[in-house]
Amino acid sequence: MKKYKGSYLCYVLTFFFYFMAMSLFGSVLSVYLTGLGKSASEMSFIISASGLFSFAMVPAVGYVSDLTRRPKLISFFLLLGVGVLGLVFSACRSTWALFLLDGLIMSFINSLMPITERMAGQSKYRYGSLRVWGTLGYAVGAQCAGVAVEFFRPVVLFLFVFASCGLTVLGFLGTEEKEEDAPGGPSGKKKLPLSSLVQNRQFVLYVFVAFLFAGCSGVNMNLAPVLLGSLGVPTGMVGTVLFFSTLIEIPLILFSNKYMDRFSGKALMLTSFGVITVQFLFYGFARSAGVVVGVMVLLKAIASTLFQMITLKMVRGLLSPALTTTGLSVINSLNSVSIILLQNAGGFITDHWSIQALYLCLSALTGLGMLLALLLPACNDEKVFS
Question: Model pTM?
């Protein structure tokens, strides 16, 4: 047990199976709901619960984590909730019940993200060497989810989710806590000045820019399987496309130490907006499944992966260490609101026009986000990824 405590293996288990659970539940959820006979509007309504519930849950969990310094205990209860509620989700068919359960499950999953990101940034191991296992877990989860939805009963998919949550708990038990994270540590005795978040104008600007990016990226994550399905791609192949698109993250994360601390947060954010805008323009104009699949494999994961790392970099640069998890949680929470708004608007546009028209609208929003990103501070003082 002593050898396991703080070992690289426990971090591998944590990141691989946490992201695998996230992917198993969320990557083909739109296809799963469509298969239950839900319309695009109903499907968007159900999925939008993630943002609505996360808006309250994520910052609350982040603040409690910063206040109590007990991330392991908090993570245990969140993962237990995801596993159990996932099994209940598999038996439900009511739109309102699915909405409620999706909101709880995804808010629990999203609440764990700031905890794992902080863990990766503070670990004795390099950020990229840990986070890359999350990419592999997400890719494997997407492939398994596509196969499970197409060939097996729904409960099989959610049994995989339950098992992944259990293995994530096993990994969390072995991770180490820094002194500032430990109960009674230096930061734990300080009163957290939450008002400083609102008073920090640079942080508020980044929150707004991230609001636009996350909303568009979240809608793309939820509706990319629907886009592929509309072009005639089978459900099993959808999982394969998502699998390979996720693998593109590996070099980005593995070699993050080579560029994330070299370039400013502002430059990296502009790059992310550029990549996602080009991607959406292809989705809006292309009518060939081959072209869309190629673009999705090459570009889908790049922008979202960069955004995740940029957020950690910007928060570390703009806020005090005692508010890192809280800052990340506030951003994730407000991003959830963006996904709620755009997900429901996206369902309306898809029902009345087409999913291609939706992607053209999203490209206009990401173009606006790129212009606002020009006003961001550089944020290149903190060395987070080296």
Answer: 0.68
**Mean pLDDT per 10-residue segment, the chain (386 residues):** 76 91 85 81 83 81 78 88 91 90 91 82 78 85 82 85 92 72 49 63 85 87 82 78 79 80 84 90 88 87 82 78 73 78 80 87 91 79 66
Contacts for 270-275 with beta carbons within 8 Å, 24 or more apart? 270/370, 270/373, 270/374, 271/306, 272/213, 272/302, 272/303, 272/306, 272/307, 272/310, 273/213, 273/303, 273/366, 273/367, 273/369, 273/370, 273/373, 274/370, 275/299, 275/302, 275/303, 275/306
Q: Which residue has the tokens 């940034």?
A: 121
Rg (CA), the chain: 20
Residues 6+ apart with CB under 8 A from 79: 18, 21, 108, 112, 165, 166, 168, 169, 172
Q: How many residues does the chain have?
A: 386
